[in-house]
Amino acid sequence: MSIDPPQTSLSRLAANSQVAPASVQNEAQIKAPLVASTPLQYVPGIGPNRVELFAKLGIRRAIDLLFLFPRSYQDIAPYQSITELESGFRASVIGQVVDMDQRVSFEGRSTVGVLLAIEGGGYVRCVWYNQPFRRQQFTLGMRVVATGVAKSTGISFEMRHPETTILAADQPLPEAKPLPIYSLTDGLQQRHVAAAVSAALDGLVTTMEEALPESIRLAANNPKDSIEKAGEAVNRPPLLGITEALKAIHQPNSIEEANEARHRFIFQELFVYQLALAMRRHRLKHDKPAPKIEATPMIHTRILKRFPFELTRDQLRAIDDVRADMAQDVPMNRLVQGDVGSGKTVIAQYAMLNAVANKQQAALMAPTELLARQHFTRLSQQLSGSQVMIELLVGSISQRERTELLQRIAIGTVDIVVGTQSLLSEHVQFESLGLVVIDEQHKFGVEQRASLRESRIVPHYLVLSATPIPRTIAMTVFGDLDVSILKDKPPGRATVHTYLGSTHQQSKWWEFVVRQVKSGRQAYVVTPRVESDPATEVLGAEQIYEQLLNGPLAGLRLDLLHGRMDGIEKQSKLDAFTAGRTQVLVATTVVEVGIDVPNATLMTILDADRLGLAQLHQLRGRVSRGSYPGYVCVFAKQGVAPEENVRLSVLASTDDGFRLAEQDLQMRGPGDLLGTKQIGLPPLRIADLVRDAQTLNFSRGLAQELIDRDPNLEMAEHALLKRQVTQRHGAVVTLGDVG
Ligand code: ADP
Ligand code: MG
Known about the structure:
Among the domains are: 1-28, no CATH class; 33-72 and 191-207, DNA polymerase, domain 1 (Orthogonal Bundle); 77-176, CATH 2.40.50.140; 297-486, Rossmann fold; 503-640, Rossmann fold (3-Layer(aba) Sandwich), CATH 3.40.50.300. It is 38% helix and 17% strand. The protein contains 26 helices and 21 strands. A seven-stranded parallel β-sheet has the order 11-12-10-13-14-9-15, sandwiched between helices. The protein binds adenosine-5'-diphosphate (ADP) and magnesium ion. Magnesium ion (MG) is lined by residues 344-345, 439, 466, 594. The site of magnesium ion has 5 residues, from helix 13.
């Protein structure tokens, strides 16, 4: 950015010559011309009070004002009719000159009056004091636009010293200009923001440097796939340059112009993020080698034999992907995406056994201790009778056991370590870590994933996600990963029936649950809270457990499980349920992910309106794991019919996780989709992952192209882009291997 914008000398001149234009009122501006980093209090027209208000919007420097984009635009009619005028407010009117007068007082002061007959009816008198030349500007019959503060005179209106434009007789009226609407904070008004932005534009806009080279702006406005589709070259001009775009987004002449400007900034925002991801992909592949882990035909067959069932076509395909990835010295970065119950664990098991067969260690991380234990138990069963050494590293093991285990991991006598995030946080040393599997990836973000990278040689990565994620989200949150998708489910799965229960039917539902349990099945009862909340009348798991035990489910073997219990207690309760000793498990959403008890076929979800769609679908996944049909009944809070809740209706309408995810995304936006934490979503100012899906898709391709050509953005023309990438998404790019 230039330190000395061209306006400098002009404003100095103006200041010295005593005829300063109205906009130069602030001494600060005269002394120091605006630069990007000028603190807000030196921007003309912003007083100390407003500086604080702007700070609440994150605006501290002059340049921040330029990037405070309008939230929307309002079409304002350019001219008001007489009935729309309000005394004391600024307005524009259009009318014909029907009378003129000029008076000179004893002291020699002149008054010029011009009476306009306003189109549509009524009169406005324009008045000028001490400007006798005004008289000559107008003739009777002229069409004039007058803009100024209208003052009521009782019978009509008067404007003192209005700005006037004379229109040719048949000149069409100018179009309405869109008025930008900014997101405000209490005490700040639209006109304050507009004035501040306008001052910043005046001072800075011509000094802005362009981050997007012309070639990119041209490509961005001429998407290749549409060329192919149309069968002819689309030749649109490049996206607006930075100066034009800033002017047009804040002070557009038409809504089309505003949209053009918005498009540029939406593209830029998505493109910069995709560049960060593309740089990350590139680095993951080329920074450090990974061990080559080859599944020879013998190893391959031996591993597949360990599964007690035929693998599905999608499972075999994903295994092929993994096999090919691991055989290279470029680290694998693969996401296996599949709906609940699609059998993702099989892929992880294959990859781990492949690593072990090649004398490499493998680590498996799960988001909860319960899930880690379940994986550990399953793997141990599956590997019983083999030489493979598998251990569990979780928070609840004793310090002595832990120390001993860490040593064995470090010297390589442990082949597979199963654990929670503690595998990340503690500096667990491996002798030769060849593979890291992360289960239920949607609970971790890009940045967390980053921190597992070792020094010299990096392991292969396999991540599993049970949240079927719409493509647009996958491209952002998991944009650095290759993807295998499991669409088909293992054969023999019975369907799940989902019902929307109303409170007055609850007793009928409980009767059904009792009958099913007596015939041998098991049931979950899920509720969002541990304790009751008097404010919202949501009952907690503890109270519900008591009520059911002494009411509709009396006589059944009930138990209670929630997140406040310690790891050992949770585990023993889950063990009792898995073994069938507990018939009905009343639980909070701790059972949301991964728990696999095929005999449990009934699920009641209370206060379901408090849970997200993805979460509800996950929960439902608990009862679709065996050959018996599953039954899910969701109840909204007391007094609310579940069908009034759109989310619950959508849940009942389809069992396809991918379709649900798309719908959820449409309804609630990407933040909620991934749970309350919003982990891993980039901060977006103007782009919208749902609305701008096409631009996102396209910017991804362009970003990849650019990074292929200039992997570290070292070319001079990319310097500014690089700065934006590191400023906004540094953590994504650095892979977290520093520190
Ligand atoms: P998720 O994808 O939700 O993690 P899991 O890997 O836990 O699913 O698998 C769900 C259940 O399906 C498990 O009991 C598993 O043993 C079983 N399963 C997985 N693949 C198959 C298959 N090809 N045929 C039959 N059962 C399978
Ligand atoms: Mg799973």
